[in-house]
Write a structure and sequence with these properties.
The chain has 103 residues and is mainly α. The protein contains three helices and no strands. It has a domain at 23-93.
């Protein structure tokens, strides 16, 4: 018993570009963003904010907001740089087979 042919009709003529075809700048920015590990950095920023808030002995009306912003920005920059350096050491810095040892 032969199967009947399936007829597919394409109604959409405009297709979205693939990730590599989105443009070199957009693709590079997406790669840099992924390299900085934003999910991990969000957790680091939350922990930094909590520690900053708990360590501040002043009442909330005298809270040093500018110092908090500078601290969070510096922490995020350091954490992003650390994530990027970690990826470099893992991928480009140590060539060869780096599988985990058995046993």
């Amino acid at each position: 018993m032969a199967a009947d042919p399936i007829l597919i009709i394409a109604t959409q003529t405009r297709l979205a570009p693939a990730r590599g075809q989105a443009g070199p700048i957009r693709s590079a920015m997406a790669d840099y963003w992924a390299l900085t590990k934003p999910e991990v950095n969000l957790l680091i920023a939350i922990a930094t904010f909590a520690g900053f808030y708990l360590a501040c002995p002043r009442p909330l009306d005298d809270f040093p907001w500018l110092l908090l912003v500078k601290t969070l920005l510096g922490t995020l920059l350091v954490a992003s740089g650390t994530g990027t350096l970690n990826q470099y050491v893992r991928c480009a810095g140590l060539p060869g087979d780096r599988s985990l040892p058995d046993g």
